[in-house]
Each structure stands twice: as C-alpha cells, then as structure tokens.
Fold these 2 entries.
Entry 1:
Amino acid sequence: MATTLTREQHLELYYFMRLNREVEEQMVRLFRQNKIVGGLYPSLGQEAISVGTAYALGPGDWIAPMIRNIGALLVRGFKPRDVMTQHMARYTSPTFGKDGTSHFGDLKSRHVISPISMLGDLIPVMTGIAMAGRYLGQKIVTMTWIGDGGTSTGMFHEGLNFAAVQKAPFVLIVENNQWAYSTPVEKQSALRDLADRAKAYGVKSAVVDGNDVLAVERTTREAASYARAGNGPVLIEAKTMRMLGHAQHDAAEYVPKAMLESWKKRDPLDRFEKVLTEKKLWDAKTKKEIDERIAREIRADVEFAENSPFPPPESAEEGVYCEGCHAIEADWQRPKEEVMPPRSSVKAEWPLKSYAANGARPPAVKQAASKAKPGKKTARAAVRVRAKAGR
Amino acid sequence: MAETTYLEAIRQAMFEEMDRDPAVVLIGEDVGVYGGAFKTSEGLLARFGWERVVDTPISESAIVGAAIGMSYAGLRPIAEMQFIDFIACAFEMITNFAAKSHYRWGAPVPMVLRGPSGGGVHGGPFHSANPEMYFVHTPGLKVVCPATPRDAKGLLKSAIRDNNPVLFFEHKFLYRRIKEEIPADDFTVPIGKAAVRREGRDLTIVSYAAMLHTSLEAAANLAREGIEAEVIDLRTLLPLDRETILASVRKTNKLLVVHEDTRTGGIAGEIAAIVMEHAFEDLDGPVRRVTSLDTPVPYAPGLEEYFLPNAAKVAAAARELARY
C-alpha cells in the first residue's frame, strides 16, 4: 500500500528527522565541551523509527519513548531546549534537574510517559493506560518502544502477554538495531525475526524496514487502527542499525567495519531525501529553508540552555510526594453511570467461549483399539505409555 | 454500629470507595469471579462489573505496571497481591517505577497495593512475609500496617484517596480473629498518624499490626504486676509519626519496640536511632526490641511459635527494662 501522506506531511517528516539528527549532533558538541552532565545515547541511523512511528499516532494517543527516541519527543511538540536542558541538568529542564537524558514527559497535554532505565517496564504501564483509556470511553492507542536487547527481559514477556489477554489497544515497536550495548542480537535471541516473539502470545505482528520512514509510518498507522478497533495489541519489529556506540563514551570497536559500511548506504535521511526529490515534493530551495529553520531553532535553544541555571541544591529535598500539587483527573468520554451500579452489575460467572482454551476444540477422546492396527509399533507404544505411568 | 471483622472492614472500604468514585478499580489474581483468595473482594465483581474488577494472569509485575498506567490516566486503581510474599516479584515496578515517578518527573501515582502479610498461620517461608521494610527504605512510597478493623477501613479509604503509591499491608492473622464496632458513616483514618492504645507511665511499647495485640496482652499482664506500659500503634510506617513516639518516650523515659518483622533492618532500629537523635537525654534505660528471629519464617507450628514474638517475650523484655 502506498503512502497517503500529503506533500506537507512528507516535508514535516523530513523536518523532524533532520531536527532529530541535528539536535543530537549539537549535543555531541556540547558533550565535548563537558556541558552534558551524564550520558548521551545516540540514535544516528534510527531517526526514521522514532519519527515515523510517533507521527502515525494522533495527539490523543499516549506514547512512552525510550532513550533513543528523541525524534518521538520532537514530534510530540517538545523542543530542542527540553532535550538539551535535560542532558545539561539545568533548572529549566522539564524535570528541574531531577532526572536527565530523555527521561521526561507530560501527562496532561502531550500524553508522553517518561521512560525508565529498566527495559520492558513501559510495556505493562502502557497496557494499563490503554485499559484505562478504553474504560474511560476514549478511543486511544498507547505505544512504546523497546530494543532487541530489551525483548530478553521478563517484563517484556509478562507485559506483552498481559496486553494480549486484555486485548489492549497497544502498539509495541521493537527497534532492532542489532546491538544491545556490545552484544549482538544473535546472543539475545535465537529467532531470526524478533516479531515472532509476538506469536507466543497470540499477538499480531509485522516486520518493517526501519530505515524507510514512509514504510514505518504506514505500518504503525495500520497497527494503531487495528488496535484502536479493539482487535488487540500489535508488535512491529523495525529492523535498523545502531550507527554509533551504546553511548558517547563507547567507540563500538566491537562492531565489524563492513557492517557499518553496508548500513551507511541505507541511511534513513539520505534515502528519504532521494524519495522527496524523485517524487518532486521539494527542491533545493525548500530543503535549504527547512535546514536553515532547524539551524536557527537549535542556535536559539543552545543559547537558552547554556544560559540556564543549575537547580538550587536544596531543591533536592522537594517533590518526593504529591501533596496536592497535582490534581488526579480522568478524562471521561462516556457516561459514568455505565460503570456504576446498577448498570455495572453482572453475574459473577465466567462467560467462556468454549470448554477448551480460547476456542480450541477439546482433544478427542481416543477409542482404544478401534482404529489402531495390531502390530509391533502399537505394542511398543503401549509399553512406553505404561512405563511413563509407572514412574 | 455493628461488629465488623478486620477482613470485612477491608471489603467495606473497597465497596464504599468504588460506589463513591468510578475512578476506583480493582485489579489482581482471582479477585473477580472468585472474590479473592481470602474473599476480601467477594461481591465486588457482581456489583461493579468486568471493567472495574479485573482478573489478571499470574504476573505481579504486570499487575503493578498496569496499575501505574491506570494511575497516569487519572484512575485510582487498587492492585492486590494474592499473598504479600509475591510483592517481591513486582519489586522493580514498585521501587523504580512507582516510587520515583513524582520526584523525577512530576507524575503522581495514586495507586494502592494491598495484600495479606504476616505469620502465625503456618504459611511457611512463602506465605508469611512481613515485607514492609524493603519499602520503608524507598522514598516516594507510603507504607500502612493497620491493626484494627476500624483502622483497616479508615486507612484503606485514605490510601485510595491519596495521590501517592500506598502499600497497604493487611495482617492475615487478624482477618477473622478480631472484631470491632466501627462507625457506619464515611470516616477515614489519616495516614502518618500513630495512636496511643493504652496509657502508662513506666515504659513505652511501640508496635503495629498483629503485634499490637500481643503488646496489649503483655501490657495487661504487666499492669497486674504494677508496671504501667504505654502502648503505641504506629499504624503507618512511612511516613513515621515521630512526634507521638518522642512525646511518649519523654513521658515514660523507656522504650521497647515490638515487631513481627525480622530483627536486622526492622523498624525498631530506625526508631531507636530517632530516639537517640531527639530524646537521648530523656532515656533512663537502653532501647530494647522484641522481634522475630533473623531467619525465614519456618513452617512447623513449634518452629514458627519459637520464631515469633509473643506476650510472654514482650512482658519479659518490659520487666527487665522497667528495672532501670
């Protein structure tokens, strides 16, 4: 299926991918100037996934980006200054210096959940939001990302199974960049396609070229509409390559040079620029305008970040508990009476679809000796069965 | 006013809160059709339906994770651990995800995590845990351990209405063993406030949950010998009501802490340190503690009895302390 995106949407995808890349390159410069307090986790070569997936959802949908999904944060309206002040631990950052990197979010307006360093945790959390959204009558989808390495965690499996049995409107992007720090994917899983992990849980899945932003966007949009319609979660494996080390300090000498060379030819930005040119969706002037806009925005935000103060030390004591500083409000999109007695009342008995698991037919009761031909084979089998029973 | 068991009080709190606020939902293993392993949620599914009473796979991490997600969406979920021992399976979600959420990015988690804890019912090493101190050591959580039916109901209501993750440790030994007349109105008991359960002048006994009753039994016996113990029920371990403890110690000048949790790293050590820091001059004797042994909870009745504190052990420690 071809993309249905307009010219403006194509250009917007380019803007976010380029912005994603330029913000990270700017942060490398800041890192070298010792202005980044902690780590810097690059997404070079993976911008099509962050941007394409986030772009496919609506503003009412909830996302939880992971460490390499700065592009998704930008799509959701966060500014380069948010990302920079976070990394630089300034008081003006979205977390006031309490947490770093892309560990921030916005519950109320952008519906972005902050990631956590423990991989897989976001899967049950986003499942819970999806369940709550359904309960509240919202037609939302929730989405998070996980790397190839993260699919080895227990939380991935508990969470995906949970989402499946709840038929949660949830999309999981497995961003297979082939490396979990220094460990190749073949040491994480014996599967050829990590998408196959979904089969074990009865979850629909797809594999997509993670360096093709249009394919990523389209596949995610289809998955979201499938999940939104109440069919259950979808797992998308986006195949890509981590083009730098795990973090800025890691020179990634363990990655074969030829592997990097081969993936360099598939750079998602180069490829998308070619598409835009071939489809005649832009010209050199348009590109220049977008690139200059990005440069301006980054310059202004670097200046903002560098001139921002560090948090006052004593603010370390603040904010452990919510003492009424935040209101807990659910966005009800259905009449509350529907979930209150007497309308909510039911008979406490399982309305099972069948008397075997999930509609499967119960195993047939074997009629002993009716079909079996007499012979050595049957006799041996009978002996085996008895031996087993005797243990 | 009717006589209500500790278990029924918990059930009533959930019923009334779910009736009051459609944002309150219950999620856990066998909580729906079956009504919970201890029947704590019996009747909830019939009244509130499949959307509000959710039976889950055996996945404690996913239960807590989903409850966190529901909290972010503005609900007030109650997540049940079938036995509190299984909270260890969800440790990561509670300590790293829920507890740090508000501090690090300003996202409150108004979730209650409740379940049956405690020994004395021959549950053995995996059905008798008192895991409170793992979580008292975790900033961002609240830890509640009620000892009476009235408190169980009033504190659970407060926990559900709280904007923070509250761990609500019910003591299963008390479920059907204690009864109390509790008010019929919509009352709450504040989190973070201890109660003086018996007044006395000779020493202070600080305790909570099932050990409150053991301490009161010991205090009654001590009174016959002329030793008047003041008995404090902590009710909440985090945040700890330091003022009530310190005020009592300043009056009696002696402190004995009694808990069913194991000795090393139990709340007694923390309370002793607080008293040293703030009331050292008021002490007329060493701070003493009566606790379970530093072992897993053993299964055989004789072993478990030996492991647990009892009224005789509490009274013996109190007598010794009273002599100073």
Note: Residues 381-391 of chain A have pLDDT under 50 and may be disordered.
Entry 2:
Amino acid sequence: MSVPTSWFLVLSFALFSIGLLGVLVRKNVLIVLMSIELMLNAANLSFVSFSSRLKDIGGISAVFFVLVVAAAEVVVGLAIVVSIYRKRLGSSIDDLKELQG
Amino acid sequence: MFGATIVDSIVFSVACVFALIGALGVISFKNPVHSALGLVLCLFSIAVLFIEQGADFLAAVQIIVYAGAIVVLFLFVIMLLGVDKEESVKDETLKFQLPLAILAVAVLIGLFIAVGIGYWVSGANSLTGNFKPGVPGILELARAIFTTYLVPFEATAALLVIAVVGAVMLVKREGMAKRQSEEITVGEQN
Amino acid sequence: MFPEVIHVTYLIPIAPLVAAVLLVLFGKKLGDPASGYVATFSVLLSFILSAAVVGSLASVSAGHRFFEQSIFTFFNYGYPPVGVAFLLDPLSAVMILFVSGVSTLICWYSVGYMKNDPQFHKFFIYLTLFVASMLTLVLGANLLVTFIGWEGVGLCSYLLISFWFERPAAASAGKKAMIVNRVGDAGFLLAIFLTYSVGKTLDYEHLFVFSKTFSHGVLIAIVLLAFVGAIGKSAQLPLVGWLPDAMEGPTPVSALIHAATMVTAGVYLMVRLSPLLASVPVVAHIIAIVGIITAAFGALSGSAQNDIKKVLAYSTVSQLGFMFIAVGTGAYVAAIFLMVAHSFYKACLFLSAGSVIHAMDEEQDIKKMGGLRKFLPITTAAFFIGWMAIGGIFPLSGFWAKRSILLHAYEVSFYLWLATLLTALLTAYYIGREFCLVFLGQPRWGNKSKKHLSPHEPGLNMKIPTVTLAVFAVFGGLLQLNLGNWLNPALKPLVIASSAGSNTDLVLSIADAIIAAIGAYVAFALWKSRSFNKTLEPAFLANAFYYDYYVDKLIARSATYFAKLVDNVVETKTISYIVKGATALAAYSGDAFRRLTTGYIRRSVLLFLGGLILLMAYAGFKGGF
C-alpha cells in the first residue's frame, strides 16, 4: 500500500496555489512565467496521481501532451519577452499596460 | 502513513518538502536566477514523485524536457536580457494587489478543502488502457498515444513547429534582410 | 298634435351654423358687406323659424306645450339615453324669440359698424357661430346640450372680445374673460357630474321627477354648483372682473353678447333649474344676496366711469344682479321679463353708444364729448329712450320689469326691497349722468382734440336696428300682460304669484315710479352743465372699489408665487436633481467600471481568479457541498 492519493492531491494543490500567488504578486516577467510553469507542473502531478490510482494510462498521456504544450508556450512567451525588452528597458510586467481603459 | 511502506513514506515526505521549498523559492527570491534554480529543485522533486507513482518514463521525460530544456531556456533569456537586477516585492504599484492576492488564494484553498471533504471522485478503472504501476508502461503509453490520442499527437507536433517559427519571427531584427541582400549584391559585383 | 312646422326646431341653431361654415369657406371672397348680409340673413332665418315653431307651440293648449326633438344619442348607459336633443317649451320659446330677434338687429347693425375693417368677414363667422351656440344653449333638452352651447358662447365671447387682438388690452381682456368664465364652468361641470351620478339622467323633464328622491344635501350641492357656473357666465361677484374689460371688443359684440344674450345664460340656467331651486330655499337666499350686492356694486361703480361703454358694462352687471334677485326671491317670471326688456334697452343703449363712437372717430371718453344732440339727433333720442327704460320710468318696459321684481322682493324682505329700490334709483342716475355728459351741454371736443371732428349720423344699417330696439324698449311692457300665464306651466312647481294684495302693489308701484323719476331728475340737474365733480366721482368708485386690484393681488399674485415656488422647489430641486442624479449615477458607475480595465496583467489575473472562485462556489453550492 503506497501513500494515499489524497496526499499527492494536497501537494498538487499547494504547488498550484504557490504558483498562482507568484503570478499575482511578482512583477518580473520571467518570474511570472516560471510561476506559470509551476502551476502546470502541479497539474501534471495531479494527473499522474489519478492515473496511478485508477490504473489508467490516460492520465500519463495527458501529462505527455501538457509537457509538449508547456514547452511550446515557454518558447513563444520568451520570444515575446525578448522582443518587448528590446523596445524598452523595463522588465516589469506592469510596463505592459497598453490596454488601459 | 496509514498502511504505506516506510520507504514510500520517507521518499514522499522528502520529495514533498523539497518541492515546496523549491516552489516557495520561485516566488520569493529577488534574483531571477535564484528563482530558476528553485524551479529546478521543484521539478526534480516532482520527477521523484512521478517515479514513486510508477510513471518512470514520464519522470525521465520531465527531467530532460523541463529541467533540461525549459529551465535552461529561461536562464538563457535571463542572462541575455540582464534582468537579474533586484526587484522589491513590497514596492507595489498596484493598490491592494498583495493583500487581495493572498485573500483570493486563501479563499480558493478554503473552497478546495470544502469540496475535497465532501466528495471523492472515482471513475472506472483502466478506461483508456491498463497501467500497472511499477511495470514500465511504455508499451501501453505508446499504444494510447498512437491510436486513441493520435490527433492530439499530430496537433502538438504542428504546435511545436508553429512555436518555433513564431519565436523566430518574433525576435527577428529589422535590417537583417537588407544586410543579407547587400552582401549578395556586393558578392555578385565581385 | 303639433302642426308639422314644429319639426324644424332643430334648424333654428343650424341656420347660423351653416352660415358660419359658408363664411369660413367663402367669406373672404364675399367680402365687405356681402358676408355681413349672409350672416344677417341666416340669423333672420332663425328668427322666422323661431316665430313659426313658437306659433305652432302656442296652438296647443297650455298644459301640453312641450315638444322634444332628439337628434342623436351619445350614450345609452342609464335611462334615458343622453344625447343631443332640443326641447321646445314656453321658456325656451321666449328665449329663442328674443335671442334670434335681437341678434338679427345687431348683426344688421354690425354690417355698418364694421365697415372697412380688414377682418370684416371673420367678425361674422364668429358672430354666427355665437348665435348658433346661444340658440343651442337655450334649446337644450338636457344639461349636456346646454353645456355645449355654454362652452360655445364662452369661446365666441373670447374670440370676439379679442377681435382686434393686435391691441394688447384686447388680447388680455379676452384671456381674462376666458379664464374667469372657466372658473364658473368648473362649477357647472361639477353640477352636471353630480346630477348624473346621483340621478342617472341629465334630461330636464326626467330630472325634475327624479329630483324628488335626491337628498337635501345633494340638491343644495347641485344648485349651488350650477349657480357658480351662472356667476361666471353672468358676471356676478366674485367673478365679475371680466365684463368691464370685455368692452375692448367691438361695440356690437358688447351689445349682443355682454348685454343681451350671453350674460343672460346664467339667469336662464337658474330659471331652468327652478324646480330644484324651489326646494332649497337656502340657496335661493344666497342667490338673492349675491344679486343685490352685485347690483349695488355695479351701480356704484358705473356712476363714476368715464368710458362710454364701461358705464354700460357696469350697468349690465347691475341689471343682472336684479335678475338674480328675482330668481332668488322666486320671481322667475319677473326675471325672464327683465331679461327680455333689458336686452331691448341695453342693446339700444349700446348701439347708440356705438354710433357716438363712430361719429367721434373712435373716441370713447365721455369727458371729451358733449353737446352731441345737435349733431346726432336720432341717436340722442334712442339713447334717451334707453335711459328712460333702464331707469324704470313709467310707462316704458323697464318700469314694469323692475316693478315685478320689487314687488316680490318686498314680500321676502323689507330690507331687500329697500336696497333694490335704492339701486334702481342709482340706475336712473348714472345712465342719466352719461346721457348729459355725452349729449347735453357744450361740446368739449372742439379745441383740445387734434382730429377734425364732424360728427354725423351713421348710415341706415346702423340707424334702423337702433331705432327698432328703442321702439321695443318702449312697448316691451306689453309683454308682461301674458308672460306669466305663458311661462308658468313651464316652471314647475308654479311660481309664487304676487299675493300681497292689490293695494300694497299699487302703493309700491307708485313709489317705484316716483323714485325712478327722482333719480333721473337728479342726474339731469347735476350734470346738464358741468363736466366733472370730484365728490360725485370719487376715485374708489371710478376704480370699481379697486376690485380688480385686490383680485390681482390676492389671487393672481399668489398663484404666480405658488407657481414660482413649485418651479423652484419641485422642478429645479427635486425633479432636476433626480434626473441629473440618474445621469450622474450612470456616468459614475460607468467610470467605476472603466477603471477595471487597467491594462495591468496582474490585475486581470486577480479578477480572473475572482471569477473562478465565484464559479467554484456556485458549483459547490449547487452540488450541495
């Protein structure tokens, strides 16, 4: 008998919340992106836990795809950060307020 | 823990603690480089937890792709842009952002606990494919990906291509094409 | 059982109405004087038809002189149906005869008087419309038709008073007449509503039967409210201010509307409602008191006026007061008699005044006249006859009319009789003053006025009606020989016959004649040679006791003040605040929402999280946590 699934889920949710907090509070663009990665990882952990419990391969394949999408997203995100950083010197996410109403 | 073997429990606890430390490090360090290192710690811990669950292949993929490629990419950009300057968390330009964020997350946690206590999700076993923890399930994984989830697989392949092309277009500098064409004409003259 | 001709009754008000329509369409083309003759002819036609139907009415025995002709029904809610219906009985017979007769003469006179006026045909449109309305009023078989006519004459009065509306005085006089009349109309309307809601009928015939079942309070209310309407229409106190101002209209208008016909509508209404009135003596007393006070007011004010027409206007007010005294004392026949006689001599006086005004080139101030007897002999004679008649000199018509009223007043109260007698004395006096100032003495208009005046008699169009009316003023007294017998069956219950005993009657009549003669002589003695006298013409009388001033101060100013208050408090502070507040609220909330789109990504994420929490909570609660 291994560790109960619920503990994994609690950990997963804790990591998710921490990542969420990071997105809301930090001003540095790169750290925000890293927090997003953290959230994605938390989701992956949750997927795997359920897959293990239900003895279903679907969870593992889902993680597979999440991984690929996360990678693609990081690539494009960082490219955007680089091109924005070229235009101006600020690295604070608060500088990007063109959509101000 | 209740009925778990001692080894499992110890591994879980250690991995859990390191994951949390890493995560907290990501959001707390002022220097982005330190945050990246915290992220690596977290990812490694999660890989350990994957192994404990029996998803060995996935743990390997996680380390290679996430810790090996993505975090390296992050560090690359950090170094390139030189954003390793310190930045203060207390210095908040948006009003009430910090307290409101903490409040929102606390509420979310509360909600989750309320939901979690009330329900336990269950579903049919082995719906998609059989998975025996401990037994390397590459065969099953491959079968699932290349038959049931073929379309998403192809889509992600296309997605990767689009991402790469898009990234190149985004960071392309002006004038590069002009310089290249100048070189060609100069070359031709010679 | 009536001769067939009686069925043309409905044509009597229709004829002038048709003429009005024709004049609207073709009046401008017909022009001066053809449109005037068209109008006169239509009113003459009314008169001939009236004579014919009255003749056929008279051919039936006294108890059956009652003919109702229904044109169409408005609604059939209760029994009987309410609609346009005409009633021909002895009372309305008298009314249509003298209304159409006097109207014909005055219409003919107007053809001469309004000559060269640029709006000649318009005058006759209004005039024929007026005659049609007045005839509708008196021919009405129920309160509704009477009210239709009532409103019609009010409208035409307004149109005709402000006929020369470019003059601000005329325009505001028209407005005043309309507004003061409206106050009275409100009372009349309330009476109609009350009658219908309690009795379910407006028909005169049925009303008098049903009214026996009404409670005393209801009867008092109905009659009192109808009297309010009469006060407005007949210019009694307190709704008297409009009549002197109405003299701004052309003189034929003053003669017809404000002397002979419209103002008598109030008296007619009260006489029509006499069966109800007879059962509420308290209201009758009120009517008599209002009558005598108004009569005195009119007489006193008239004795100090300087405008030739204003004297006659106050005189009309006073004479109407007499008529209401008669109504109040139950002498309905006397009231009608005075009404008819008054229409003759007052119209005669007004038409003569009109001739004087024309001769003096629109001058109306009697202080600037004098000695006109040499230039206008016929007019002088007509005015003299009018004076003798209104003063109550034996044996002209006025004497017989006043005598009836005085006799009935004596039976009711000695003081009432005394007051009426003194007012009659004043009547003879103040018209006499006017006569002397205008026609006797030396001309006062030669040297001062810049216009080169050569007064001369007017044309035949104006002379003949004036003289005709003067003749009637003289011989009108003959009417009273049979008027009582003719009218009594129409006024149920029977009117109180003069029963004080023939000796007292004789003494009173002689006293009456002597007093009238005294009044006339005093006037002649005082005014034949002087043109002004401070004590006899004090300022407060010349300004009619400052009545208009007080009404303006108390009522008009306070109404204006109240309106301004409402504007300030309600409009500006309350309603505007509410409206502006609504817009301000919309703007404010819009602005507040706008601030959500800060453009800060982290803010957006926070809001996103907030929405997520709400969704989870909703799902959780739905699921039952």
Note: The radius of gyration of chain C is 31 Å.
